[in-house]
Amino acid sequence: MNPRHYNFQASFNSFAGYLFPSLQSNNKFSTATRSIGFIQYLSTKAQPLGNPCPPLPTLFLQRACMYGWNPLHIGRIAGLSLLMAGSALGQQKLLAVDPAQSKVNFTLVDVLHTVNGTFQVQQGDVKFDNHTGAMSGIIEVGVGTGHSGNDIRDRRMADNILDAPHFALATFEPKKMHGTIAPTGDSTVQVDGIFTIHGAPHDMTVAMKVHIDGNHATATTHFVVPYVKWGMKDPSTFVLRVNKEVDIDLTLVGGIAPVSTTTATGTTPAAPGMAHNGAQ
User: In terms of pTM, does the model score above 0.70?
Assistant: First the structure.
């Protein structure tokens, strides 16, 4: 079949639906991907016409012209593909956590009273994609930084229960987001991730409340850590019985910005106005 006689839209829809059934959702990135894939397919199946082509700026357009495609149409497709791919990248955002403003509160109950305290967030970055729900990054908390107002209790918690000399950090690595985060105002999403404490990873899903105001973001969540079940020492004595679970309230504050090309290639910049503190 002479490629010049192709009905482009019909051919594109037919082929794309066959080759990319998983990408048939009406989203921009799928359209861009299918456009490029369709053109690459035609260039391997069609035969050159041998007609001279005008000078074109890229091999992509030159090859398309060789196979009988109108360079104007190819240019439009290439431009659209780049635009759509760029739009998909624009869906990715980076939260650069400010440790000085972020905090971890904990609550532990025993038979006599309730212990409230804090841990320090060491550092963290979270990247999320509203388009796909993909998340990445890590939040690090120093387990030896616990403060409850009683130095003896805090040292025992750090050394005997959390074993801070061997496991200095507790971390959370987000992997998947269910729901979307609005560009401004309040949102609630479910986040799947891996919580690691005392050297052991645990799958966890938490409800994350997010508030965005300009380039500033606050994310909060509550979860329970069954520390005894997870292999840590029970601080209970014969007289004093302590709850075997501890309630955690995590607050992350930082700058939020679109993921840049530099970030996408592996260098993580701080969001506006935020600096990273090294892990301690």
Answer: no
